[in-house]
Design a protein that fits this description.
With about 220 residues, the protein is α+β, with helices and mostly antiparallel strands. It folds into 2 domains: about 140 residues, Glutaredoxin; about 50 residues, Antioxidant, Horf6, Chain A, domain2 (Antioxidant, Horf6, Chain A, domain 2, 2-Layer Sandwich). Helices cover about 30% and strands about 25% of the residues. It has a 5-stranded mixed sheet. It has a 4-stranded antiparallel sheet with strand order 10-11-13-12, covered by helices on one side. The chain has a two-stranded antiparallel ribbon with strand order 1-2. Helix 2 crosses helix 4. The longest helix has 16 residues. The protein binds benzoic acid.
């Protein structure tokens, strides 16, 4: 079982942009691998189009994105035309990120992305909507698994990466519904003296327990 903080397993795969070695393809970037049940399905089409629209936001955060669907490369290429059209892009535009083919469910099985309740017309289980976030050290930092019937919210995925990138740099955690720029929490592991020195604008929120664990500070510079 893959645990947060583990090295994300490397793999080679055929994609719409040719064969890749995942770790080499990532280079110095963060990576988001997201899987889909299959090509030419409605929810998946909306998701891939949204990722295409959000690509400048992914680039700003030094994130490379890669999709996976259990159909063939030629099917993916044909589907990309629908995705571009749905997303409002010109058919002349190159599809801007690779999609892995996984007809034999090798990667889907290895990474626990199979949804046994979703069966293809040929009787094989499809992939769920998995999201894996990998950092530039190739560490597995986050995953979210959705069933086929629920499309993902890619604004939430960007928000999560904002939190990961910020909390890698500053000794803070991000509270409920946090967005970049909002107040943060000083990490519980930072002692009182260190917290006061590092976060001069910190405010301790009074609580019935009289404990001083809820310490807010303005969002540090990312
Ligand atoms: C979809 O992408 O719309 C979808 C795919 C498989 C099952 C349900 C929905």
């Amino acid at each position: 079982m893959l645990l947060l903080g583990d090295m994300f397993p490397n793999f080679t795969a055929s994609t719409t942009e040719g064969k890749i070695d995942f770790h080499s393809w990532l280079g110095e970037s963060w990576g988001i691998l997201f899987s889909h049940p299959s090509d030419f399905t409605p929810v998946c089409t909306t998701e891939l189009a949204r990722v295409m629209q959000l690509l400048p936001e992914f680039k700003k955060r030094n994130i490379k994105v890669i999709g996976l669907s259990c159909d063939s490369i030629s099917s993916h290429h044909e589907w990309c035309e629908d995705i571009k059209s749905y997303g409002g892009f010109s058919s002349d535009e190159k599809f801007p990120y690779p999609i892995i083919e996984d007809e034999k469910r090798i990667l889907a099985t290895k990474l626990g992305m199979i949804d046994k309740d979703e069966i293809s017309p040929s009787g094989i289980a499809l992939t769920a909507r998995a999201v894996f976030v990998v950092d530039p050290n190739k560490k597995y930092r986050l995953s979210i698994l959705y069933p086929a019937t629920t499309g993902r919210n890619f604004d939430e995925i960007l928000r999560v990466v904002d939190s990961l990138q910020l909390t890698d740099k500053a000794k803070v955690a991000t509270p409920v519904d946090w967005k970049m720029g909002d107040e943060c929490m000083v990490l519980p592991t930072v002692g009182a003296a260190e917290a006061a020195a590092a976060f001069p604008q910190m405010k301790v929120v009074p609580l019935p327990s009289n404990r001083t664990y809820l310490r807010k500070t303005p969002c540090p510079q990312p």
